[in-house]
């Protein structure tokens, strides 16, 4: 069989545009990011929640990852990175792409193009399928982050409808406006790898969802201790190392830009974790493993929009600034009556929303124009670089602020509308019986049953 085929076509050359190194790195980076969702967030949530919610929390992650992939390849990718849909004059023609499938033979095997309208940059050196999958894992992790705001009481059926609607109608708009050559990109706003598109969006949307779904049981709000911190730390570790793909993959080439982004990511994360740990030790008198995870996440999120635009010193200051600000908003502002009315289970508004905002503003503050992102391998095209306030460009801070404001407003409005639509089909909150019973009531199984040793055999008589 094989020899016959070889006789007919002994050699099929690879496409001339394809570079094996860039292709391998892009697929590897995408896999790292995918592992942040499953198993990363799945086991992080499963370890941090109360025991009765461990299975449901993980299942929500696996479901969301799967349904977003289907939506993404059938219409979502081209809504975020395709040709703009003409919805009206001016800005209305720069907010979303035209929905259509991305998985025909041309879309999968043809040369991928950088989604920056009118940029003049050359196509990428890998196939469209690598680009589609890379951008999918970013789209997939965003609703999983939203889940962190509603764990412990959202109706699973409502979640099943919410995820594809939100991913299709809300996420794609933010992605197109900042990454697909849309309005905010044309305005000069930058988001290296998702501080606004993913984390600010998830923090705001999660808070809106938490408010509309309603709170957990009072007993769960007052006592929601982690059921397995070692499992949670394993999930956190997958997030940290998976972030190398998150930020390292966005130059689209296996080059110096990718390496700098990876190094900056780890520097900022280490700084934020250490700062948070010290702040907790002053406030609580002892280190806190859960809070240390929060500090790690804040550092990862904050450096995400800035990873390739700041140098190592900028990464240090980004991690430091974000950690201090988010620690304060979570532990002080979050205790105010206004925020206490909304039961944001894991404080996603703070650890992702505020952290993403601080990271985006840090671009405006610390972006070093000598950190150059080349969008071609031969450096013959115009490079991308950003100049921040400390290098003489205060306008970038204002531009980053305006972009954040647009993302915040859009996600408040879009998430509210999507949840209203869902509420007409399914109740947003699980039934009282499901909230009481957790995994056993919803899935009919206890994933970690209590071990009861068998009774010893009776002693022999006589």
The helix/strand order is: HHHHHHHHHHHHHHHHHH
CATH fold group: Ammonium transporter fold
Q: Based on Cα principal axes, name the global outline.
A: globular
CATH superfamily: Ammonium transporter AmtB like domains
- How many structural domains? 1
Spans where pLDDT lies below 50 across 5 or more residues? 1-6
Structural class: mainly alpha
Rg to the nearest angstrom? 23 Å
Q: In CATH terms, what is the architecture?
A: Orthogonal Bundle
Which whole number gives the mean pLDDT? 89
The proportion of residues forming helix, as a percent range, comes to 55-70%
Quick take:
The chain is mainly α. The chain has 18 helices and no strands. It has one domain (21-443): Ammonium transporter AmtB like domains (Ammonium transporter fold).
Describe the structure.
The chain has 462 residues and is mostly helical. It has a single domain, classed as Ammonium transporter AmtB like domains (Ammonium transporter fold). 63% of the residues lie in helices and 0% in strands. The chain contains 18 helices and no strands. It has helices at 2-8, 20-48, 54-81, 105-109, 128-150, 156-179, 183-187, 195-213, 218-222, 229-248, 256-284, 289-303, 312-331, 337-340, 348-366, 395-423, 432-437, 439-443. Helix 2 (20-48) runs antiparallel to helix 10 (229-248) and helix 8 (195-213) runs parallel beside helix 16 (395-423). The model is unreliable at 1-6 (pLDDT under 50).
Summary tags:
Ammonium transporter fold; 18 helices
